[in-house]
């Protein structure tokens, strides 16, 4: 199947556009560290910075170009000689250098920002690409604000830069204004109208102002783009860029709709995300797709019950596939007995139905107060329920971690249940969400308990 899939180039701009996010600027060492992780992640292109922007950025691009040798290393430049020369100075020792030249093309940018005419814009773009090409074989051109540019004029600029030697045409939705169908049509128009388009790679660079960056990037790929520009955790100007992890996992999880492959080693995604958050101090929102803290957490009782029986009930990709250590059942007031019993087993306690009922009643009261019941709360609750004399701590007060550790005394090891017989659809998993073998339902009341949980909506 993979032989039939078209290859999409992943151009990571975390170190350039991503760095333009408030609070996300990185120093030289930090950029270098992240560049090594992007290399491990398997991205095809690392846009390492904007060398003319500062001496620090210049040095960082230069250092990355010197030591990160597998991917293409790109540096950004405005469409003018000093920028292009500076970019080349930083990139020239890279194993695979790319100069990325950009110039705005929308009337609003030409008139108010650049104060140049359309004709001047065409000339400037052509000259800049020609100059970049005289230094470096690999030249990317971006018509900034392409999605608000008159398509006729956009094609005119693109004709000129292809003729001047551009090898990649990147189409930026600079202000996150387009929508998937429209962006797909624009890419199709470019493919149809631009002269020499068959010699170049079309790329999509989408911002997330309307929350559609990933959808727009995927629409562009469906329409023939073969490079996507994206960032780890979706960081970038304003609402950010299309998120690398979302694009890549959409292709991996839905090859029926997106029959494309990338060189990304998806198991490195979580590590890259964590490293970026650690470096910038900017946390990822908990419900962020793929790498948010809750992306593989299940709290509702019905979900937890399904997950414990077979993770495929509620998970469309495994945590392992993106490098997340394990999926996590969050114990809260919506959790059911099944999940509670399973967590107790993991903590070394097995209870019969009645004992679990006792704990469950107290657990629900506690969860009502503190929302999420952590392991140390649960241990205290177990101790309090079954050995009242041993505990002086009030039941529904959280206890400190050290105290909790003290109650976690070694207990008889939990007998490992036999795995369930194989199920035919779609993939058989012999283990539950915690990597444990699926339980055998030895308890005659078991099915009834689950049914009760379901009816109670826990
Ligand atoms: O959003 C944008 O237009 C850019 C260009 C420099 C590619 O980041
Ligand atoms: Zn951008």
From TrEMBL:
Its EC number is 2.3.3.13. The keyword NAD does not apply. CDD domains: DRE_TIM_IPMS (cd07940). Residues 8-270 form the Pyruvate carboxyltransferase domain. The lineage of its organism: Bacteria, Pseudomonadati, Acidobacteriota, Terriglobia, Terriglobales. This is 2-isopropylmalate synthase. GO terms for biological process: L-leucine biosynthetic process. SUPFAM superfamilies: Aldolase. InterPro entries: 2-IPM_HCS-like (IPR050073), AIPM/Hcit_synth_CS (IPR002034), Aldolase_TIM (IPR013785), LeuA/HCS_post-cat (IPR054691), LeuA_bact_synth (IPR005671), PYR_CT (IPR000891). Belongs to the alpha-IPM synthase/homocitrate synthase family. LeuA type 1 subfamily. Signal peptide: none annotated. Pathway: Amino-acid biosynthesis; L-leucine biosynthesis; L-leucine from 3-methyl-2-oxobutanoate: step 1/4. Keywords: Acyltransferase, Amino-acid biosynthesis, Branched-chain amino acid biosynthesis, Leucine biosynthesis, Manganese, Metal-binding, Transferase. One of its GO terms (molecular function) is metal ion binding.
